[in-house]
Write a structure and sequence with these properties.
This protein is mainly α. The chain contains 22 helices and 7 strands. Helix 13 (about 240-255) crosses helix 14 (about 260-275), helix 14 (about 260-275) runs antiparallel to helix 16 (about 350-370) and helix 17 packs across helix 20 (about 430-450). The longest helix is centred in the C-terminal third of the chain and has 21 residues, at about 430-450. The protein is elongated, with a radius of gyration of 35 Å. The protein starts with 17 loop residues before the first helix and ends with a helix. The model is unreliable at about 10-20, about 35-40 and about 275-345 (pLDDT under 50).
C-alpha cells in the first residue's frame, strides 16, 4: 500500500512567504504602483534580448570590414541570432576606458558590444532581436581586449593584419591593478598564441602601409610579410624610412617579377652593393637559352626547389614557366659561340671587374640558401671541374673563401686542401654536397672573371643560372654587352 505524500503547508501571510513576502520585496526594491519587477536593472551574467538599435559597436573591434555577411543575414532572418553576444553598459565602458570614449560611435545608446559584431550587423539587417549577456565586469576589470582577442582565436576570415591589431590592442592595455602595460609574456599568455606567433603578428604592424594592405587582402602571405619586416637599414633599424624603402622594394620585386621573398631579398642585397658603389641597378637583358647538350655541360637544370623557372624577357621583366618545367629554348643558342672570331667590345676592364664583384656576391647568396640547387645542377658543375683538372686549384680556393665566410664547414682549416679533406671526412652529406657544388660554381665564376679571355657559351650559361636561381641575379651593363655580342654571332 502506497502512502500518499503530505500536502505542502501554505506559509502564513506576513511570515516571510506568500503574497506578503512578494509585497515586502517590491517595497524594498522601490517598486510601487504600476512599476513591474522587470524594471530592476539587469545584473552581470544576465541574458538579455535587446533591440540591436540600442547597441553601439565597440571601437576596439579590429575588423576592417565584415566579410561574407550574406549567408549570416539569411540565416539570422530565418532563425534569429542563436548565439548570444556580449554587451556592457556604454556609460560603464566609457568611464573605464576614457581613452576610447571619443571613438564610441553611438555614445547615446544604452549598451556597447564586446564580441559579436557580425551577429549584431545581421540582427540590424533583419530586424531580429539580439540576445546578449551583460558583462560590465569586463570593462571594470579592463579585460575587454582579452575577450576580443580570445574570440579572434576561434573566428574565421580574419586577416593576419586584423589579428595583429587585436594582439597590439591587448599589448597596449593597462593592467587593472597597476598603471602599466602588460609585459610581452603576459600578452602571450592572455592572447592564447605562442611567443613566436605573437612576435610575427606584431612585426607585420611595423611594415609600410602598402605592404600591410597586401598582407590584409591576401596578395602577400603572412610568412612573406614577416620575412620582409626583417629587412633593416644601415643602422640596424626595421622601421626607419630607409628600412621601409627596402621593404617596399622587396614587395615590388615579388609583385612585378614574381620572385619568392628569399629571391627578392637576395636581389636587394645585390642592389645594395651596387648603390654603395654609386651605381644604379642594371636592367636585365635577354639571356639566350642553350641546347640540351650545352645545358649538361654548364650544369643547367630545373629551377631550385620551391621556385618557378624564369626566363628574362627583352623588356626586362620575367616570364614564369610552369612548375617543374625548363624554360623553352625560344632564343638563339650559343653552343659553339667560342669559335667566333668576332672581337669583343672596346676595353671595359672596370665594367668587367664590377660585374665579377656582383656575381661573386650572388654566388655567396646562393650558397647561403638551404636549397641552393638541385642535384643535377650540382653534379653537372662538379663533372665540369673533374673534366678540367687545371681549374680545380683556383676553384677550390674561391669556394673555400665563400664557405668559410658563410661559416659552412670546418672554418679552422686555413688551406683549401685541408678544408675539403676535412669536409670529405666529416660524413655529413649536406655539407659534402654543398662543398662540391661550391667548387663547380667557383670554377664557372673564376673562368668568367678572367680578364684575359673572351666570354663564350659556358659563361652565358653561368650568368643565366644565377639569374634563374634563388640569387635572382641581374645582368650588369658589361654582361648584357657580352650576351648581345654572342647572340649576334649565331643569328
Amino acid at each position: 500500500m502506497t502512502t500518499p505524500l503530505p500536502r505542502p503547508k501554505r506559509k502564513k501571510k506576513g511570515g516571510g512567504g506568500g503574497s506578503g513576502s512578494l509585497r515586502a520585496d517590491r517595497e524594498r526594491a522601490g517598486l510601487t504602483g504600476g512599476r513591474d519587477i522587470h524594471a530592476l536593472p539587469p545584473e552581470d551574467g544576465e541574458l538579455l534580448e535587446l533591440d540591436p538599435e540600442t547597441i553601439s559597436p565597440n571601437p576596439m573591434n579590429t575588423r576592417f570590414e565584415l566579410r561574407d555577411m550574406d549567408a549570416m543575414i539569411a540565416d539570422v532572418g530565418e532563425r534569429g541570432v542563436h548565439t548570444p553576444g556580449i554587451v556592457m553598459h556604454t556609460k560603464v565602458f566609457m568611464e573605464c576606458y576614457p581613452q576610447w570614449a571619443s571613438r564610441v560611435k553611438y555614445p547615446e545608446r544604452q549598451f556597447i558590444l564586446g564580441p559579436g559584431h557580425r551577429r549584431h550587423a545581421a540582427a540590424l539587417a533583419t530586424g531580429r532581436v539580439m540576445p546578449a549577456v551583460l558583462r560590465d565586469d569586463l570593462a571594470r576589470k579592463r579585460r575587454v581586449e582579452e575577450e576580443l582577442v580570445s574570440e579572434n582565436n576561434s573566428r574565421r576570415g580574419l586577416s593576419p593584419i586584423e589579428q595583429a591589431l587585436a594582439i597590439e590592442l591587448l599589448r597596449q592595455r593597462v593592467d587593472e591593478d597597476e598603471e602599466r602595460t602588460l609585459s610581452f609574456d603576459e600578452v602571450v599568455e592572455r592572447a592564447g598564441y605562442t611567443a613566436g606567433t605573437v612576435s610575427k603578428y606584431l612585426a607585420l604592424l611595423k611594415l609600410p602601409q602598402e605592404v600591410q594592405q597586401a598582407v590584409h587582402v591576401g596578395d602577400l602571405s603572412m610568412r612573406a610579410g614577416y620575412s620582409l619586416s626583417l629587412l633593416k637599414d644601415s643602422a640596424g633599424s626595421k622601421v626607419s624610412a630607409e628600412a621601409h624603402a627596402l621593404q617596399l622594394r622587396g614587395w615590388e620585386l615579388m609583385r612585378v617579377e614574381k620572385l619568392s621573398v628569399e629571391a627578392a631579398k637576395n636581389r636587394l642585397a645585390l642592389e645594395g652593393k651596387q648603390f654603395h658603389a654609386g651605381k644604379s641597378p642594371a636592367v636585365p637583358a635577354p639571356v639566350p637559352e642553350q641546347r640540351e647538350e650545352s645545358n649538361a655541360q654548364a650544369g643547367q637544370g630545373q629551377a631550385p626547389t620551391g621556385e618557378t623557372a624564369k626566363s628574362v624577357s627583352a623588356s626586362g621583366g620575367s616570364s614564369v614557366a610552369p612548375q617543374g618545367q625548363q624554360v623553352a629554348s625560344s632564343t638563339v643558342t650559343l653552343a659553339n659561340a667560342e669559335e667566333s672570331s668576332e672581337p669583343a667590345p672596346a676595353d671595359g676592364t672596370a665594367l668587367r671587374e664590377a660585374a665579377a664583384e656582383q656575381r661573386d656576391l650572388a654566388c655567396q647568396l646562393l650558397l647561403a640558401e638551404d636549397r641552393y640547387a638541385k642535384g643535377a645542377e650540382s653534379s653537372a658543375r662538379l663533372v665540369t671541374v673533374v673534366l678540367n683538372p687545371n681549374e680545380w686549384k683556383q676553384a677550390a680556393a674561391k669556394a673555400h673563401g665563400w664557405l668559410v665566410a658563410l661559416k659552412k664547414g670546418p672554418s679552422s682549416k686555413k688551406r683549401p686542401t685541408d678544408y675539403f679533406a676535412a669536409v670529405a671526412a666529416s660524413g655529413e652529406p649536406g655539407l659534402m654536397h654543398r662543398a662540391a657544388f661550391a667548387i663547380g660554381l667557383a670554377a664557372d665564376e673564376v673562368r668568367a672573371a678572367d680578364p684575359d679571355r673572351e666570354w663564350d657559351a659556358r659563361d652565358v650559361a653561368h650568368v643565366q643560372f644565377l639569374v634563374t636561381s634563388r640569387a635572382s641575379y641581374q645582368l650588369s651593363e658589361w654582361e648584357q654587352q657580352q650576351v648581345e655580342r654572342l647572340s649576334r654571332v649565331k643569328q
